User: Fold this.
Amino acid sequence: MYLTAMFPSVPIWAWILAFIIITTIINLIGIQVTTNVNLLMMLFQFFVIAFFVILSIKSLLGGTGAGALWSVHLFTGDGNSSLSAVFAGASIACYSYLGFDAITTLTEETINPEKKKRCRGPSYSRH
Assistant:
């Protein structure tokens, strides 16, 4: 975890427990608070992404880093990896997102969800 790298004296289990407690409290308070917290977190994420893009463009146009706006070296690193490995990683990320999106779509379309509350994920994953 990144927080463990920033604060090495705090054990990783303490960060996990803190996030579980904070998330549980926010969800128990109510849906309106959960919605507001999600909105604030989303706005913060957009701010960080915009900040990253602006700094990246400034850095690339200034000639720092790899020194060019378009370079395969940015993706392959020191030459030990190939562009096919980058595409393989992108494919895994894409399929992971599509799988998550399919699960959320299925949950949204569930008929009479109160009767079908129990988790069936593990039973579907075993063949």
Remarks:
- Helices lie at 2-6, 12-29, 31-61, 73-76, 83-108, 121-125.
- The two ends are 33 Å apart (CA to CA).
